[in-house]
Specification:
heterodimer; A: alpha+beta; 4 helices; globular; B: alpha/beta; Rossmann fold; 3 domains; 8-stranded mixed beta sheet; 16 strands; 49% helix
Chain lengths: 109, 636
């Protein structure tokens, strides 16, 4: 099982449907993640700074990145411990490609 | 079942008694009386208040505060006042503290702003509340809960949280991981709330139709959550012996009819009533009188004779408080821009009537006027005696239109709008393999939230700012500071996210529109916010807090206050009403000191005005409204 983790900025709700108009990007991201979980053997988790600050602090590479670059480095997307994107979300297609690649890569011992 | 059976512990488990009802109905009094009575009956009792403006200290004549404090002179009784603001601030600081390691001051400030939300205040209050639901050292815990709508949301949250936690996502209200630890505790709290053996839900209200209507709505909401309302207490009916003229005799008759109706309609195990007293209920003697009536079947003691000890040197010159010219200025347009006039305040303070009366007088003076209500009970229709629809409809008065925001319709409109937006967004993307239907279904699910309802109402509300051709738009309600803060939030959010150099395709058009609305509301030349209250402690404090919020959160200053239900001089010529009048005058003075704005004084009426003729006549008795009709209107 692959693990995809999104480290995101402090926000109230990650779905994007909160507030006067929906946040297009977050709506897309949420939908894409749901669909990817169905299609791939991947477990997606989302950590946002407001709710899951512990997770930021406990994950050394994330804490270092944020410490060095500030929150402009967020969101950080991590797939099986490897940072696959910083400062931006990936689209469904891009994420699917990443997952396919990791899935097909020879298993490391 | 008697009220006594309901509040007494039925087994070895701690009994929980909740008093619900809006501010000013005597909830604190009833809670204190109940707690005192239980303590007197040898039950180890804790009284918890989450009222933002608690007056337990006045009632017990002893400082209480944020810690559990033993009440002097009463064995077995302790009390605590939970200040929701303090609780929220503690919660905020706990949340922010760990972030300080990673974020700089500016970023911390942004997070702090975001945490300044009703959501966070609710959760903080609820947290405190759940803490006391596990108090095995007490036989009974009596909660003097916050006003109705608030309470309901507190009750609703835990179920939502659990649903949210099961999905494994992060929630609007707190760190999912730390919530996980509390899940068991919350579930136990809900179970306890639903258990009629262990928990009693009591409503306190006034003998008025609007009060009963609201209680029925709230009880309905609770019932949906599996919580039964068992006890109804109607407080403050006029005692027969003091109603010596047709005005008050008539009022008393109406009240008795409402009490009758409540007995018939309200599905409670027990009901009880307590009369209005000449003064405020403080001190142990009066508390035990209240408890005696509620729980021991005693007759109420109304001490009419000794009610003459009015401190005349403290009495306030009511006429001097009114400032008709300023009021007239603030309800009419300055220059040729539209004036937006908001009447705000808790339910039952008479907002709709005052809004309709003001609108009528303003229209009479020659201004093109629109009056908008968001009252779900569609009160405006009753007041005008004419149908009022979702879109502005003209009523018989020249220059006057009326509209009623239909919440259901507004929500539907909002849903459609959001879904259309999302659908279109996906249409514009070509080479995607995303399952659009699933994505839309996702959003649809998200729209089933209280947040969406609030947004929908707000959307509709904002749309009335775009209505052209009116000199004055009168709203019989206003968004709270919290709600307006929500309008500002998205731009803050985006500001925060922009730090992340995100190229976001969010539509800025709406943001600009909201900015404009808020700017209009902040401009005293274009908008007037008026707080409606009656001159008593709790209504005054509630209005004051709301006014402070509006100022702190969105920078809107109160234009004037409306003091409603002032006892007429010509009726109630006895010591009882003399005392009530003196009490009102003292509060009028205090309102003036607190708000420091002009005052619109509105007399108590025998009946609600119905129809344009009565509205117009009533308007002549209200500060400032008579004056505008004399002004020369040159607009048009």
């Amino acid at each position: 099982m692959m693990e995809l983790t999104l480290y995101e900025e402090a926000m109230c709700c990650s779905t994007g449907v909160c507030g006067p108009d929906p946040d297009d990007e977050l709506v897309e991201v949420s939908a894409a993640l749901d669909q990817l979980e169905d299609e791939f053997d991947v477990e997606v988790s989302r950590a946002n700074m407001q709710h899951d600050i512990d997770q930021f602090l406990e994950t050394q590479q994330i804490a270092d990145l944020v410490d060095e670059h500030g929150t402009s480095i967020l969101p950080i997307l991590v797939l099986d411990d490897e940072v696959i994107a910083t400062s931006e979300y990936l689209s469904y297609d891009e994420l699917a490609a990443e997952l396919r690649e990791t899935q097909n890569a020879p298993q490391e011992a | 079942m008697t009220p006594r059976d309901l509040v007494e512990p039925s087994g070895d488990d701690t009994e929980f008694v909740f008093f619900s009802g809006k501010g000013g109905v005597g909830k604190s009094t009833v809670s204190c009386a109940t707690a005192t009575w239980l303590a007197d009956n040898d039950y180890e009792t804790l009284l918890v208040t989450t009222d933002p403006a608690p007056n337990l200290s006045d009632i017990f004549d002893q400082g209480i505060g944020h810690e559990v404090t033993e009440i002097e002179g009463i064995q077995n009784l302790s009390a605590i006042e939970i200040d929701p603001d303090t609780a929220a601030e503690e919660y905020r600081q706990e949340t922010i503290e760990p972030m300080r390691q990673l974020l700089d001051d500016e970023e911390i400030q942004t997070v702090e702003e975001q945490l300044n939300s009703p959501c966070v205040e609710e959760i903080a209050a609820f947290d405190n509340f759940v803490d006391f639901m596990e108090s095995p050292e007490y036989d009974v815990v009596v909660f003097d809960t916050a006003p109705t709508g608030h309470t309901i949301r507190l009750m609703e949250l835990p179920t939502d949280w659990n649903a949210e936690l099961e999905k494994g996502g992060s929630t609007c209200i707190g760190p999912a991981a730390s919530m996980e630890d509390k899940k068991v505790q919350y579930e136990r709290a809900i179970d306890t709330l639903q258990d009629t053996e262990q928990t009693t839900f009591a409503f306190v209200g006034k003998p008025e139709d609007s009060s009963i209507d609201e209680i029925e709505r709230s009880a309905g909401d609770l019932a949906e959550l599996g919580i039964e309302s068992q006890l109804l207490i109607l407080n403050g009916y006029l005692p027969e012996s003091v109603c010596e003229d047709p005005f008050f005799a008539g009022k008393r008759e109406d009240e008795q009819a409402v009490i009758e109706r409540a007995h018939e309609e309200f599905d409670a195990d027990a009901t009880a009533t307590y009369p209005l007293q000449p003064g405020e209920i403080t001190g142990l003697d009066l508390l035990s009188d209240v408890a005696g009536v509620l729980y021991d079947g005693a007759e109420a003691t109304v001490d009419v004779g000794s009610a003459t000890d009015i401190e005349t040197d403290q009495s306030v010159d009511v006429e001097a408080l009114a400032d008709p010219a300023s009021i007239a200025d603030r309800v009419t347009p300055s220059d040729d821009e539209t004036r937006y006039l908001f009447f705000t305040g808790k339910g039952g303070v008479g907002k709709s009537t005052i809004a309709a009366t003001s609108a009528t007088k303003i229209a009479e003076a020659g201004y093109e006027t629109l009056v908008v209500t968001t009252d779900p009970a569609a009160h405006l229709e009753d007041i005008f005696g004419e149908p009022v629809g979702h879109d502005p409809t003209s009523v018989s008065q020249a220059n006057l239109d009326a509209a009623r925001i239909d919440q259901e319709k507004a929500l539907e409109e909002y849903r459609t709008q959001v879904l259309d937006h999302v659908t279109k967004m996906y249409e514009d993307k070509e080479d995607t393999e995303i399952d659009v239907d699933a994505a839309i279904a996702n959003v649809e699910e998200e729209l089933e939230s209280p947040c969406a309802e609030e947004m929908a109402a707000l959307e509709k509300f904002v749309s009335y700012f775009q209505e052209d051709g009116y000199d004055v738009v009168v709203f019989d309600t206003a968004p709270t500071g919290h709600t307006l803060r929500l309008l500002e939030l998205p731009s803050d959010w985006k500001g925060f996210m922009d730090l992340g150099s995100l190229t976001k395709g969010a539509a800025p058009a709406k943001g600009d529109q909201y900015d404009e609305v808020i700017e209009t509301m902040q401009d005293p030349e274009r908008s007037s916010f008026a707080f409606v209250m009656y001159p008593e402690y709790t209504p005054m404090m509630e209005a004051y807090r709301a006014a402070e919020d509006l100022n702190d959160q969105v920078g809107i200053e109160t234009a004037f206050v409306v003091a409603n239900y002032l006892l007429p001089e010509e009726y109630g010529d006895n010591a009882f009403f003399a005392n009530r009048r003196a009490q009102q005058e003292n509060y009028l003075g205090e309102i003036k000191d607190r708000f420091e704005t002009p005052m619109m004084l509105v007399p108590l009426r025998r009946d609600e005005p119905i129809g344009l003729e009565e509205l117009s006549a009533f308007g002549d008795e209200i500060t400032g409204l008579f004056e505008i009709s004399k002004e020369e209107v040159t607009i048009q």
